[in-house]
């Protein structure tokens, strides 16, 4: 990810670094190169415009004209602004004062939600928590089984809407008249079970579609209302390109997510989603998913990502 963006920016800055003085035209041509590199990386147009506007304003100001090494100073500005676009500070998971902490996952089908549920469970288990997964994606026939497999790999239990398979515990047998087919009921019952069994983190997987779909968005909103999660994480495939903005805004409107997970960052896509979503939604990127295995999860650090792009 970001290889081509990184190469383009590095070669732009190579021309600048050694310069003793920078003319306005030096700065303008640098900004133009940055703009083109970002557009080619699929970064959303409004983000590109704002970013280059801020860099230009600062680059033409006193901090550069009075710097001992103006070229270096411009690179520093680009770095700082990039950290800003990526969300600024690292944002950690908000854990509930009174467990369990409830984390709901939302996103398009295929975005990597279910895989991420296992990664997050393992990540939290390794930190000494006792997570449980809840399978509230009842849209795809395979989704429940897939989550059970993911849970087993992560070494955590799974609360599933089918009798006889809750990670070694009793099934979520319906104690009322609700059917197993109701994801809101499953999500609520899963959180209830976690409380009874004293798990301290509940990770709820929800259904996605290949495109934003009103019914499913409403279902996700209903689940959110029913379980009152501490975090709603929006999982987005970093390879999605220009569609990132539209998708992220639709999910923000639908479920008002609290954080973003960038998945498939191990791919060689151009990475525009990564560089657009935090800025457009104002929500922090909290994790990156970097492969298909349970261990392939990283806490997202905007400063480290910016350095990786600019180094
Ligand atoms: P869901 O429909 O949102 O639950 O998506 P899945 O978790 O089923 O993932 C869809 C596909 O993407 C699967 O084939 C996963 O193995 C793959 N996948 C998920 N996360 C990653 C990742 O970080 N990197 C790569 N390379 N593949 C991933």
Q: What is the tally of helical segments?
A: 12
Helical coverage, percent range? 40-55%
Largest sheet: spatial strand order: 3-2-4-1-5-6-7-8
The small molecules bound here are: guanosine-5'-diphosphate
Low-confidence stretches: 163-179
EC number: 3.6.5.4
Main location: cytoplasm
Subunit structure: Part of the signal recognition particle protein translocation system, which is composed of SRP and FtsY.
GO molecular function, one term: 7S RNA binding
Can you offer a commentary on this structure?
Residues 1-86 form the Signal recognition particle SRP54 helical bundle domain. Belongs to the GTP-binding SRP family. SRP54 subfamily. Residues 100-311 form the SRP54-type proteins GTP-binding domain. GTP binds at residues 107-114, 205-209, 263-266. Residues 99-311 form the AAA+ ATPase domain. The protein is an alpha/beta fold. The chain is built from 12 helices and 8 strands. The protein has an 8-stranded mixed beta sheet, sandwiched between helices. Helix 6 runs parallel beside helix 7 (143-154). The longest helix is centred in the first third of the chain and has 17 residues, at 24-40. The radius of gyration is 22 Å and the shape is elongated. The relative contact order is 0.17. Residues 163-179 have low confidence and may be disordered. Guanosine-5'-diphosphate is lined by residues 107, 109-115, 208, 263-264, 266-267, 289-292, 296.
